[in-house]
Structure formats: C-alpha cells, structure tokens
What we know:
With 257 residues, chain A is mainly alpha-helical. Chain A is built from 12 helices and no strands. In chain A, helix 2 (32-46) packs across helix 3 (53-59), helix 2 packs across helix 5 (74-85) and helix 7 packs parallel to helix 9.
Amino acid sequence: MAGRKAAAPDPARSLALLWGSHTKPGRSGLTVRAIVGAAIALADEAGLEALSMRMVADRLKVGTMSLYTHVPGKGELTDLMFDQVYGDLYADADEPARQPGGWRGALEFIARRNWDVLTAHPWIHEVPTMRTALGPNITRKYDTELRPLDGLGLTDVEMDSALTLVLTHVQGTARAGAEQLRTQRDSGLSDEEWWRQISPTLTTVMSGTHFPVAGRVGTSVGEHFQSVIDPAHALSFGLSTILDGLAQLIESRSAVQ
Amino acid sequence: MAGRKAAAPDPARSLALLWGSHTKPGRSGLTVRAIVGAAIALADEAGLEALSMRMVADRLKVGTMSLYTHVPGKGELTDLMFDQVYGDLYADADEPARQPGGWRGALEFIARRNWDVLTAHPWIHEVPTMRTALGPNITRKYDTELRPLDGLGLTDVEMDSALTLVLTHVQGTARAGAEQLRTQRDSGLSDEEWWRQISPTLTTVMSGTHFPVAGRVGTSVGEHFQSVIDPAHALSFGLSTILDGLAQLIESRSAVQ
DNA sequence: AGAGTGTACCGTACATTGTACGGCTCAGGT
DNA sequence: ACCTGAGCCGTACAATGTACGGTACACTCT
C-alpha cells in the first residue's frame, strides 16, 4: 500500500462500471469481468492487502498497466469485487421470506447466508463499504433482506435498524473468526501451540497481579472451546439473543395494533 | 504496506514489552513509552495505514532505525498502542458495577465507554486483535467488564458470550461510523454532496430495475437521518434490543433457581 | 487496396513503505 | 586510559499503486 496512495475511488466512475455489462472484450480478450474474477480468486487465497495489480495482470497473462484500460484503479476494482461476490447470495427475491419460522426463520436464513459469503471471502472485511453499497447486486440484496420484515408493524426506519443489527452482528463475528484464521496461518501456530509458547512468559510477567473474574471465566471459556474464541458459538448465541430482543419489539407493535 | 511484509509480531516479545515498564531511556532520551505515544498521536490524525516508522521517528527527532532498538517492528508497536489506549477506560475495577440500573445499566455504561475509545482512536479497528489481547490493560478491562455479569445465574461461558455480544455490536457500529467519517474526509464530500454527485448517474443506470421495498425503506431512512446511516442511532437501537434479549436469558436463569 | 485514426496495450519511472545490515559513537566499568 | 557493549542511524532493497508516454493493432473511410 505504498506508491501513489491508492487514490480513493471515484464514485460516479464506480457506479457506471458497477451497472455496466462488463462484457466487451478488448483485442487481447481482456474483460472487466475477467479482471474482477481473477482478483477475487487471488484475494480468496491471500487477502486484499496481498493482492496487487501485478499479480492480477500476471494471472491473466497481461501487462500490469493494461488493467488500467478497463478499471480506473485498485479502489474501483475492489468495489467491483465486492458487488460481485454478493451476486448469487439468494436464489430469488423471496427466498428468505419463504423459509419456515416466519420473520425469525427468515432472519436466521439471512444471517447464515451472509456468514457463508464472509467465510468464503474473508477479504470483504477489508473493503471500505460505506458509499459503494449501490451496485446492482448490493441493492438487490438489501431489497431481498428487507422483505421478510415488511408488514410486521415496524416502521421503515425500524425495519432498516433491525436488519442492520443482525448484519452487523454477523459481520463482526465473522471478522473475528477470519482474523483468528489469518493469524494462525500467518504465524503457523495453532491456538494451542501459541498458548504453549507464551504461557511461561505470561506466568512470569503476571505474577503479583490477580484478576479473579477474568481468570475464572477465561479458564472456563478456554476449556469449553479449546480456544480463546469460538466464532460459531458467538454467532448463534448472539443471533438468538438479538432475535429474542426483536421479538419483543415486534410483539409490542402488533399488540398496539 | 510494502517492503518486508511487516512481519507478524512475535507473541513472546510483545508480551514482555507489554508488561514491561517501558521507562528506561537510552542515551538520546528515547523510550518505548515515548514511541508509543508519538505513534498514537500520529495514528489519531491520519489512521494506522498512514502511520509510518519514518513519521514516528521524525516526530521524535530521531533516526528511523533507532526505533528498532526499542521496538521489534511495526506489528509489536501497534500491539503496544492497542493496550495503551485501553489503559484509562475505567476509573477502577468496580466502576461499571457501581452504575445505577443493575447489570443493564452497567452494560450500557460499558458500551458507552468502549464507544468513546473507538471514536477517539478509530485506527483501533485496523489492529489485528486476536492474540494480542493479553496486555495488562486489556486483561484488566476484561475483568472489569465481566464483574457486573457475575452472580446473575449465568454460566461462565454465558457471561463471556454476553459481553462479547455487546462489545461486538459496539465495535461493528463504531467501525461503520469511522468508515463513514474517513470516507468523507478522504473524498472531501459530505454525504449530501456525494449523493448529489452520483444521483444523475444512478437514475440513468437504474432505469428498468425496480426494488419496491428497498426503494421505500431507503428513502425513509435517508430522510429521517439525512444520511445513509446514523451510527448513534444504530448503537442505541442495537444495544437496547440486545439487552432485552439478554434480560430474557437472565430471567429464565433466576426463575429456575 | 491503402491510408488514417482511435483505442487497447504495456515498459519504464517514481515515490513510499518496513526493515536487514553493518558501521559509528558514546557511557560506564576496569 | 582503554575496552566493551549497547544505543543510534545511513544506506540499501524489495515491493507497492499508478502517471506518463510510447507502440501496435482493429477498425473506417476513401
């Protein structure tokens, strides 16, 4: 991430690219779609920060600078990658609403699907999301995910807040899991090996201090999950708690009505 | 982020540094504490990725490579920065538990405090947290935050899960807010200006497609908050929903007992 | 068929990064 | 007075994103 600072993506240019067809090949067969595909494959293997324009070009047997004919820069490329991976999230606009269990089942389904993408493409966590979220696939996703919450008596703002809450939880938890995996890969140490390595230092260094609750709970958690965190458990615990909370809100609304 | 790949921090070395006193100055007055302080100040201004060893050294009127006498590398430095900013989170180990409103008030207090640090030091979001979390301040923080959940009938694992849920929510929401601010700063465009700029392109490009629910809700949200997201609202909505959910769990436990 | 033109392609150059390496300098002990 | 080890730092290197300017090909028009 050095050089000319990876200039912030131009929104209008990104939009045009996002909604374009991406299919007109140049004279060497280079396509926006192909570039995005190669970039995604590379990012899946090594992460976003390890992804370089040179690597993408090499994989496509093309000069590095040729990419810039089709894509303005790395920023816009990641925007495209982002929209792309959300393309096949749902079979159709009513798939979540079709799940058994009403709105609750639908939200569980949505959470699971989002978890799956995040797990398959951990680099998503590194993409600055805020204003890019207007590609065709993202917009469709937003629509699809809101539908099961429609007609429950919630206001529009509450529908959005509820969905955001669930998605933020899934994202945060998935991020922690991805970080754990990446750390293991980078260091070549499993959680257990790592613990064994720092344990003596920690004992030496912590002597004298005492944290009664943290000590007890930390030990329990470590024994229970064989690790310092268990993302799968955090996901389901958090999700069911959140859904319990939302149920109260929804019930209070339908009671009034 | 080029060069020698910013080598992953050595856990044992980090631990020793974290728990060390950091106060023995070299012959030019250079201290680990001073380095960490300068790095934090710089990161507050420009973010973690804009922070470079050269910048830190310049601010301290010291040669770049002198830093490496005190700190093994950038990775370990960020570990130290991370632990440092969590140092003054709570006045003492029982401050959260002392808040009015029982465990609920305590968790609200904890959420607010975490939100404050995250807002003051947005670069925290970029620090890989997983295995670093064993510095003295982090450990103390964990202990302090668990206390209000002790003695409510929850198991150790449930206590940890509940706390994690709240903190994940705060972190995810704060991250979204930080991203929003950073995007605004980078582009020099307020949300409103940005919208005005892409609006024509978007209309052109979206003609033909129609997303009924997303369109309606998106418009409502935009009008209500004058923005595409409102982090403060997301924080409080999510927090109260989560606490409602946790209340059910806690009540069910005390009922059994 | 031949000429002209625009666009796809790409080689080189540059600023910026983290840090390995090896030399210099000074404080403190003998 | 001298030696030693630690603190300090100048230089070098590999890697990054991309600006710039040149080359070569697929067309269209005569």
